[in-house]
Amino acid sequence: MGSVKIINKKNMNARKIKIGTNFRLILMMLLVAGGIFCFSSSTKAAFGEVSTFLGRLYWGDGGSAINAYLDMPQGFTMDNDGNVYVADTYDNVIRKIDSDNKISTFSGTGEYGSQDGEKSQATWGYPQGITLHTGDNDFYVADTGNSKIRRINSSGVVITLSVTDAQGLLQPKAIIRSGDYLYIADTGHGRIVKMSKFGGALEEIATGLNTPLKMVLHGDDLFVIDFGTESIVKINVATKSKSTLVADFTEPRAITYYQGDLYVNAGENGVWNEIWKVNFSSGAKTQLAERRETEWLNMGSDMFIRNSRIYILQGGGSSIMTFDLNGQDLEQIAGKHRFGDETGNASTALVGRPQDLAFSKDGKKMYISYGQGNKIAEYNLWTDELKHVAGHLMDNYVEGQGATARFSDVVSMVMASDGKTLYLADRNNNRIRKLDVSTGQTSYLTGAGEVNSNDASNNGYQEGGPCAEETSTGVAGCAYFNRPTGIALTSDEKTLYVADGSNNRIRKVVIATGQTSLIAGSGAQGFANGIGASASFNGPYTIALSSDDSFLYVADKYNHAVRKIDLFNNSVTTLVGTGNIGYREGSFSEAVLAIPENIKRGPDGNLYLSEAGSLRVRKLDLATQQTSLVSGSGDRGSVNGAKEAAQWDAPKGMAFLNTYLYVADFRNDLIRTIDLDTAIPSDRDVVAPGKSFMAYAPNLRGGWAVAVGNVTGDEEEEIITGTGAGFGPQIRIFNKNGEDLGSFFAYGETLRAGVRVATGDLDNDGYDEIITVPGPGAVPHIRIFDGQGNPDVHPGFFALDGKFKGGAFIASGDVNADGRAEIIVTAGKGGGPHVTVHNYKSEVIANFFAYDQNTFRNGITVATLDTDGDGKDEIITGPEYGSPHVQFFSLSPNEVKRLNPGFYAFDQNYKGGVYVAGGDYDGNGTEEMIIGSGIGMDTFVRIYNKRQLTPIEEIRPYAVGVTGGVVVAAGDIDKDGKAEIMTMPRSNGGPNFRILEE
After folding, report:
1. Does domain 700-996 have CATH number 2.130.10.130?
2. What Cα–Cα distance (Å) separates residue 535 from each residue in 25, 550, 574, 808?
3. In 65-200, where does DSSP find H-type helix?
4. Which conformational region is residue 57 in: left (phi greater than 0), alpha (psi within -120 to 50 degrees), or beta?
5. Residue 65 gets which letter from DSSP?
6. In the CATH hierarchy, which fold is given to the domain comprising 209-319?
7. What CATH architecture is 71-208?
8. pTM for the complete prediction?
9. Where is the composition biased (Polar residues) (predicted)?
10. pLDDT digits (tens, 9 = 90+) for 163-187
């Protein structure tokens, strides 16, 4: 099946998309399968084309207001007929609730913008204040995000009022009309200003306020909620005198006047809600009610009193509640609950505040974390069904199943290869957790939770292990996190890396034990490179691992940078970013970032970045060291279409599937796709799928050795690995799943030449022996071991001249058809082109030159394979360095025959050498030549057969830009009749062992 292309019209916003479920389902199944759905070349989507995949901007019109979703509304008013008008802030609309409690959109499309005109086509930018003048039936709106005052006249036309003031307005959050004048809370400037109802000059009434919010006018006295000082400020609009009326509220936000008294709504966000009655002359206050049903009563943002009922708009609860004048007799009249997160299919589902995304391994299911909605959802692309897996709207910490589990802002998640286990960075719970998506059961991994209840912003820092119950600071052995936001999983799935955001540190978690340790970061805010704790970050938010687990990339949010950590020594450098906020594409040294939040490694090996500051998605090309735009005009909105025209409203988590990048558009409550068709590389540039694990400590860097053989006496072949130069000569043995079966040192532990390995049945007992030789820096001492690391068959011998210290290579196979494997030895770089063949007694039975004996000194890699199925192995050689000229030879009694002139496995002019192996890759009974690229080019593995000197397949085992070469081996470790290809880096790489899938 070819590739699939889904075409969406440009600039189609979410609320206008209506695709039949069956048709959509077919398209999604094709997407997962990776096929092509082409219309015509004229409609083919271009790189960066944005479409809406899942969700809607807002929902509920036409039904009862009690079943509709509001999105953190901040202002409302009522007309004389009992109709309520709501500034539905993050839905970017003005909603109307009529006297029959039916809800509709009074003005706006749901898209962020500032377009004037007919009210249904106008756009708004986070409106927070609204007032109605019943005399002329004009509405005035504080359009906070646009820093404008706008009027909806009685004819239904939206008009922006002109402001003639050098300072202008900055995020106005409240507005009152009195006669021909408007009083405006110019919140960003900390002042109250007066302006004509037609616009014009601003007159300062009061300055020096600290976040003025809602206000009420009684006569000439204006009473203002000054949130920053938690007080009510009294301002005489005639004399401009200012005084504090009451100064001891907790987070006051809303105020109104009724029959000689002020009423105030206050209370700590998410904890409790209070209604107070205040004498407007003396400031004496009386608490009428304190309630803790914070699912709905959360962050009251506006209030008024009508017909002896107190109406309170709950910004945090996204609802409208009414009370009697004593703060009792609670009744909800609007708002289903916070953040629309309805289950259903693509036509009905809502995704409220999507924070991060992850796909199952087969690409059939997408997992979505609702950051502020505190749930994990699953969308099945094959059945077109969205369901909740775990969590509840109310944040808390509870391990449980389904809706009994509680989260508190899961910012990042990563899926394990089993397709069931999600690892979660549960930010406000200060824990790292797991979720079994097949059952909905959560479980605890590490992190002590909230240990400093007196200061939520400072939860402490301590390395340690799991402490499931919340505890006080200073308890030894407990791991303390402070708002962990990023998480990454190593390829062997034994280790998690965590961005501990408010601790300004990057940390490591051993999954088996939950034990943490520091990778980098001093804990202090800063922008210093260095090693480990000498480096500093400023709000590290998310992280991504390189394909070989050698490097960790950090979105350093408030340094406006991407940092790079070499996990070999935990050294931190700055990859891109100057420390200044802005937007500029260019080289890594010149590009400018703006609040980078989410970073992911793409299938092309490059980094993709979503930015809260620039409202863009960007690409960091690691090969060219250049940044480029993927999507975003820089304007806030929800417009689909071409990359330079598309708009976002807080793009966050990302995930890749086929040729699409899926992005959680947080404020728009949408999952959107970006077409990467021309950016996702050809098959040649895509890293091959397969299993991976770390054969040694993941922070190590160097070259490695690998072999395959049945060395433990069971029915399956094992994986044997060795170290490169600079490391002790440790041999490790693994099964096909990467599980450690044992290890030993082939030579003295202090030797730093590394160890190269081969396997062969030298004694014809049906099981393979492990054969070793040191690398550069030691003489060619051949040793033979059984699968437990015991010397076997022969005490060992010295090959070549016994003195050469340039390192040797070894292979083993039955090259003379005597029923026993022989040992083949070659010299590394600096040695001659000798190939010696030894029997199990160490006797030389053949000795020949594979290349020119007078000039060749580039070293030889060697392997054996049976290319014709006759039961006798041939010898294949390739230069360790130099042109990739591969040759193979056959032994006969008293003769070594060169089977052909050889061939160049890669370009003849390439001088980085090759690594050779053999195995029955296609299961046809004869073995193929498996050639790994050397140093100085991207890593490739090519497969050749005896007769075809063009590769029958080419595979990329590691990401674009990894140029240290690749060591190859082959063996049928899963007993399916075909040899699997196994790789490790040849130089300057982590111990990333890969089993490549066909």
Report:
1. yes
2. 49, 18, 11, 40
3. none
4. alpha
5. G
6. Neuraminidase (2.120.10)
7. 6 Propeller (2.120)
8. 0.73
9. 446-461
10. 988 899 999 999 999 999 999 999 9
